[in-house]
Design a protein that fits this description.
This protein is 33% helix and 22% strand. The chain contains 17 helices and 25 strands. Helix 1 (24-34) links the parallel strand 1 (17-21) and strand 2. The longest helix has 26 residues, at 555-580. The radius of gyration is 24 Å and the shape is globular.
Length: 583
């Protein structure tokens, strides 16, 4: 066990401003003149208004501003339609529209002392250039040269490792690395098809075949190490990976690791985590335990004992009380700060549906999807069911949806949007239905009565909880789904785990290593349980410094205040929906 030379619990401060924008070079310039050591300059990408849920995209950014309460919001390089989308949401008096660094100089958010020197950098590897400018306290200026550098060494023993590709992601990663004194290293971006193949290999690593699970996991570790071989490991004590979906940390068991998803909403996820760990933040007041009694050696009781002794208010859904409908309502609406799920998780059986239709561009389409459902009996309504459907696109016009090369030559046009719109009509039926054993990525959680399929929506009444999903293969899809729902930290598993080991991990996290940064706590817990074995299934998503700490003061009042906020938010949401409905 090594001595942690830096304080892994140290959390950066948040300034009273927020940048919203998609132009990585303008956002980098703004960051370079606003940066302050020990502070995180918060950047959120602009709402994706071409999505079917464009309204929700705007609301998510409005909500993060409402939680964070910045005194100034900078809309950087915003198009006319983006500006219009925020009207009636963001307060006009605190919003500045900036299209260049010169524009910013005239705003009230501009710093009183401007950096004296310029840091000139090419338009490649923008995050590497920005972090250097931030450390030198210089304004970054971009030219057309090629800079080439892919590593900035850390001030401390922590490195943020970011996949190449998206430039705005690099800017956010550089701001984050600067705020925690970390270095920054760029590694090659993995194509989506390859990333999905890696995740699938973890999921199925215990299946029978010509190789043992240990051999398969060793091969996966070697693959990930080869793909990230440029990471400087000497003297490194902690790694944070910024990734689309690859569990890089599995390949580096010698140090604590954390992961931050680059998509969607990386900026929101970091703000949620930092805001929740500020000194004035209340900590954990309420915990929700879900145990449908599907596994032996459940960790629910020892975890409840540990947390109750520390003063947390706990609610348990157990046995028949952990049915799909009850779990769905509690997970979505109850303002819990910690959620523990103890059950089985896996991809459910379902159907392959084939649709044939003419899209709005008068093109004949053939769309194949895989779909499954979770069904819950609505309490006190004997004839009503709550149905959650999970669907995954498989192919369009015979082209594999997960094949980026083939899709490059496929004209999608309005095909998908038209399908989504038409699927709302009862008479839009598939021309062929076939049962299948597994719907990939459905990640169904087994409850007392049926499968629970989590939808990508806000959870815990916007309470930004820590999630420990202590079920087999619970990292796949659910990590990103819970994070998108505003979970600030998520711990799940890459492959099946033994019940007794799962119980021991949960107990150690909430007892022996209570109060330590989650990255360090999880690393130590896995070291205790699995020792030198390659079978270390748990992966953390979320900034490393988050930790279990109990709220001070009257827990009941804290919970009641959250419930009142939830009620007010729900009323505002209903009012907003009503204004969108044609008379």
């Amino acid at each position: 066990m090594f001595y942690m030379a830096f304080n892994a619990n140290k959390v950066p401060r948040l300034p009273s401003l927020l940048i919203i924008g998609d132009d990585p070079f303008l956002v980098a310039q703004l960051s370079s003149v606003l940066a302050k050591k020990g502070h995180y300059t918060p950047v959120v990408d602009a709402p994706r208004l071409t999505r079917m849920d464009a309204d929700n995209e705007v609301l998510r950014r409005n909500n993060v501003a409402a939680r964070y309460q910045p005194k100034s919001i900078i809309l950087a390089g915003a198009t006319k339609i983006i500006k219009e989308s925020f009207q009636g949401h963001l307060p006009d008096k605190i919003v500045d529209y900036v299209d260049s660094i010169e524009d910013f100089k005239t705003t009230k958010a501009a710093p009183s002392k401007w950096p004296e020197d310029k840091f000139v950098w090419g338009k490649d590897n923008v995050g590497i250039g920005l972090l250097q400018a931030l450390r030198k306290k210089q304004e970054i200026v971009f030219n057309e040269d090629v800079s080439g550098t892919i590593i900035v060494n850390p001030e401390l023993e922590h490195i943020v490792v970011c996949e190449e590709g998206d430039e705005l992601t690099q800017v956010i990663a550089a701001n984050y690395a600067f705020s925690i004194g970390a270095g920054l290293c760029l590694i090659p971006e993995i194509e989506e098809e390859k990333a999905l193949e890696i995740c699938e290999s973890f999921y199925s690593s215990d299946k029978s075949g010509d190789r043992s699970q240990t051999e398969r996991l060793q091969s996966l570790k070697n693959t990930l190490r080869d793909l990230s071989s440029n990471i400087p490991l000497k003297d490194t004590k902690l790694l944070t990976f910024v990734t689309q979906k690859t569990p890089w940390g599995f390949a580096y068991p010698e140090v604590p690791t954390a992961h931050i998803f680059s998509y969607p909403d990386m900026g929101i996820a970091i703000i949620n985590a930092i805001a929740s760990e500020q000194p004035e933040a209340h900590g954990l007041a309420m915990g929700l335990m879900i145990d449908p009694e599907q596994v032996e050696a459940s960790e629910i009781e020892p975890v409840k004992k540990s947390l109750a002794q520390r003063g947390m208010v706990l609610k348990t859904l157990q046995g028949a009380g952990a049915d799909v409908y009850g779990v769905s309502q509690h997970v979505t609406l109850l303002p819990y700060d910690f959620l523990l799920i103890s059950t089985h998780c896996g991809d459910a059986s379902g159907w392959e549906w084939t649709y044939e239709y003419t899209d709005s561009e008068d093109i004949e389409r053939t769309l194949v999807i895989h779909t499954t459902i979770g069904v819950g009996n609505i309490r006190h309504e004997n004839e009503m069911l709550e149905v959650m459907q999970f669907s995954k696109f498989v192919s369009l016009d015979g082209i594999d949806w997960n094949d980026p090369k083939a899709k490059g030559n496929l004209y999608v046009g309005t095909a998908i949007n038209d399908y989504i719109e038409r699927s709302k009509d009862d008479d839009f039926e598939p021309v062929k239905k076939e049962p299948i054993d597994r719907v990939s990525s459905s990640s169904a959680l087994k409850m007392w009565d049926n499968n629970f399929i989590l939808a990508p929506e806000n959870i815990a009444g916007n309470a930004m909880p820590i999630i420990l999903n202590n079920a087999c293969c619970s990292w796949h899809r659910l990590a990103s789904t819970f994070t998108f729902g505003n979970a600030r930290a998520y711990i799940g598993t890459l492959f099946p785990v033994l019940n007794a080991q799962a119980s021991e991990i949960a107990t150690k996290l909430t007892d022996r290593y209570f109060g330590k940064s989650l990255a360090v706590a999880l690393w130590r817990a896995q070291s205790d349980v699995y020792e030198d074995s390659i079978k270390r299934p748990y992966i953390l998503v979320g900034p490393h410094f988050q930790r279990f700490r109990i709220a001070k003061g009257d827990k009941a009042n804290i919970i009641f205040d959250k419930l009142k906020i939830n009620h007010a938010n729900s009323l505002r949401s209903l009012k907003f929906v009503e204004t969108k409905v044609d008379p």
